[in-house]
Each structure stands twice: as C-alpha cells, then as structure tokens.
Specification:
Elements: E1 8-12, H1 17-27, E2 31-36, E3 50-52, E4 55-57, E5 66-67, H2 68-72, E6 78-81, H3 87-98, E7 102-105, H4 111-114, H5 119-125, E8 130-135, H6 150-157, H7 159-162, H8 177-200, E9 204-209, H9 210-218, H10 223-228, E10 245-249, E11 252-256, H11 261-271, H12 285-290, H13 292-303, H14 308-317, E12 322-324, H15 328-332, H16 335-339, E13 343-347, E14 354-361, H17 385-393, H18 397-405
Parallel strand pairs: 1-2, 1-7, 2-6, 7-8, 8-9
Antiparallel strand pairs: 3-4, 3-5, 10-11, 11-12, 13-14
Helix pairs in contact: 1-8, 3-5, 6-9, 8-9
C-alpha cells in the first residue's frame, strides 16, 4: 500500500527532526528527494558509529561506510547534491519545486528565505506548494533566532521541570521528544494541507515549532491546577495523587496503576494490607492524597516479599494493571516488536543483507488494506543525482559533469 505514491517531496533537512519527517512521508510511498550540500551532505553523515563492508566501527573505514544515525533517519529517501548558494543551484531547486507537491526544511529560521528559496519564492513558481518549516521555536517570536537543539527545547519548554524525582533536579526525557514528535505533528498537518489543496487548489505555509509541540504534550495534564494548588510538579515514577507508581520487589521493579478505590482494595488484598483501608490516613481518596508518601511506604513494605512473576500473576488476576520495568536489552530481544514490524533489521542501500546488530524503527501502525512499502536503506551522498536531474530537469551526462566540476552538484 502506497497512499502517497503520487506525492513528490523536496527535503532540505539535517540532523533529526526534518529527516524523520522525510522518512515518515517516504514510508507512505511519497517520493522524497533530500537536497544536500556537495561533498558535505547532512552533518549527521559524519557522526559515528559507521556501518560498511568491514562491519560497524567508531570511525569510517571505507568510502562505502555510512553513519548508523543517518541510516536510522533516511530509509526510502533519495539523495541529491545541490549548492543552493549558487545561482544555477537555486534555479535548479526552484524547477524541481515547481514539479513537487511539498517542500520541507529544518534549517535555522530565515535561512531558506535568505537563499531566495523561501515559501514566497517557491509559491511564485508553484502556487499549490505545501511548504513546511520545522524550527526549535518556530519562525516568529522572541526566541526564533536562538540555537535550538532538543536539549535546549526541553529545558525552555518546562518539560524537564515535570520530569525526574520530586527532590531531584530537572531531568531530560531520554529520547529526543521534541525532535521526534514535532515531525509527526508536521506529517499530518502536511496531509491536511494536501487535502485542502485537493478541494481548493491552494497551497500554504506550515510553521512547526518544537517548543510549542512540547507545550501541547505537557498541558494534556491539568498542570495549571497543580501549579495553582502549590502541588509538586515533579512526580518521578509515581502519580501525583495516588499510589500508582514504581515498587521494588525481591528480583526487580514493577509499576502498577491503582488510581481507583476498587483497584487499591484489590491490591491491599493481594499484598496482605486489608487493614490499611480502615486507617484514617487512607480511608478516603482525599486522605490518601494527603498522606500519599506514607501509603507508598506501607505498600512497599508488603511488596518486598514478592518476586516479579508472583506479583504480576496475582495482580493481573484481580484486575490491577502491572508491568515489570524491563531493561533496554530485555525489551530489544522481545519478539513482539519484530513480529509486528516495529523494529526491523537495518540495511545498507542496495543490499538485502542486514547490518550486524543494527535496528531501524519501523512504523507502529498496521493497516488492514496492506503493508506499507519496503524501502531502501539510506542512500550514499548524491546517489540519485543522475536519476533526478535527468528525469526532472532533462540534463544529460555532459551537463551533469560540468555542474559537478563547478561545485553546483
């Protein structure tokens, strides 16, 4: 199934957010053409470890070696080289944009406009273009020109203040959540804009902001009331007002959800704490919330005599949600993810042989209408120059060689 097979995307993207958006659209069948600087390419190409004919190594050993990080972010994306600072390069970009449906970029705000390739310039040659920019703070506002990688965005958004132990420091979420969720918002915004174009013929500009994305995630919880009432913002592995949270057992950790009285009573019965419900400190939800630290201590004392398997079996039987806190090596070996295609073997471009121990994230939704396309691994720099420039710009080998010598491609 290739729902976007008639969509062409021109991508000027680097590092993570933009490339992840490119790969997401490619996974739905779009033709995605990544424009990279000649001889340099996306800076992430130069960040190890590298995979090649001699295996995986911290440093590049052969010309065929590609960065593992690049491979994880580039499945199904075509690579061309083009110097956008060169007048001929700009003109070539505009001609390809004229024949495209979508332009995406995640350079510093204003960079594409300064090159003469912003939305206004592209819309002049293609009024129906959907043009999407991703930036840390968006294209407007007082912070737009600040350096903005995921670390700074997590800090500035306040999400680090929500994360970590109550008595600990602000803590960064362990994945690049701003870099990864913003492209997902952008992907379905692009689809909405394309649907609008089908109805009206109008293209439009989409301004995606990483910090705004994190704000929308944070305030899905009633944090304004937490602040108003002076409650702790940070809850670590626990819930702010219930016994839900992480507990240490004899052979590991489990996390349980007991936000209702019924579930709490079931938990008490299993762990031998029925009398706790009769204690004034814990008899009502308000009492329990006021004495939540004491309640967790009482539960933890009774949990220590259980191992994980026993606790999971007993609590599942009475309807209390529980899961063992697995290590990353344990999770990575779970066949669930491979059976569903969530994790797949990493491959080099043009090869069916998997890279040793290499994993690439698949797509986490299954379609009853058919599987999404199997895509090529990330491409070497400029691998698709001849294909794209000959088919879209009608340039022959002699002209391509001339442009290469001049540093245009």
């Amino acid at each position: 199934m290739k729902p976007l097979e008639d969509i062409r995307v021109l991508s000027v993207t680097v590092f993570l957010a933009g490339p992840f958006l490119s790969m997401t659209l490619a996974r739905f069948g779009a033709e995605v053409i990544k424009v990279e600087m000649p001889e340099v390419g996306d800076p992430i190409r130069n960040v190890g470890p590298f995979a090649g004919p001699e295996g995986i190594h911290p440093e590049r050993r052969t010309d065929e070696d590609l960065s593992i990080r690049f491979l994880k972010r580039s499945e199904g994306v075509k690579s061309v080289t083009l110097n956008l600072k060169d007048p001929d390069g700009r003109q070539m970009f505009l001609e390809i944009a004229r024949q495209s449906d979508v332009v995406i970029e995640n350079l510093s705000p204003g960079s594409m406009k300064r090159l003469g390739l912003g939305y206004e310039e592209v819309a002049k040659v293609n009024p129906g273009i959907v043009y999407c920019s991703i930036a840390g703070y968006g294209q407007t506002g007082p912070y737009k020109d600040l350096p903005a990688h995921d670390h700074q965005i997590q800090a500035m958004s306040g999400i680090m203040d929500m994360n970590g132990a109550t008595d600990g420091p602000p803590t960064r979420i362990g994945v690049f959540v701003g870099d990864l969720v913003t492209p997902l918002y952008a992907a379905y915004s692009i689809l909405g804009a394309l649907r609008h174009k089908e109805k009206t013929g109008e293209g439009q500009y989409l301004d995606a902001s990483m910090i705004d994305t994190l704000a929308t995630l944070m305030f899905m919880e009633p944090m304004e009331y937490v602040l108003r009432d002076g409650l702790p913002v940070r809850a670590g592995n626990d819930s702010r007002g219930s016994a839900t949270g992480l507990y240490r057992l004899s052979d590991g950790d489990v996390i349980i959800t007991v936000g209702t009285t019924t579930r709490l009573e079931a938990l008490f019965k299993v762990i031998g704490g029925e009398e706790l419900m009769e204690e004034p400190r814990f008899s009502t939800p308000t009492d329990r919330e006021s004495n939540i630290d004491d309640l967790r201590v009482e539960i933890q004392k009774r949990f220590t005599r259980f191992n994980c398997a026993d606790a999971i079996s007993r609590l599942e039987a009475v309807g209390v949600p529980i899961a063992r806190a697995r290590t990353l090596p344990e999770a990575i070996e779970d066949t669930h993810f491979r059976d569903r295609g969530t994790l797949k073997p990493m491959r080099r471009h043009g090869s069916e042989e998997p890279i040793e121990a290499g994993i690439i994230s698949g797509f986490p939704i299954e379609f009853s209408g058919g599987a999404l396309p199997q895509l090529e691994g990330g491409a070497p720099l400029g691998h698709h120059n001849t294909e794209i420039y000959s088919s879209l710009l009608d340039l022959d080998g002699a002209k391509l060689n001339e442009l290469k010598k001049r540093g245009v491609i």
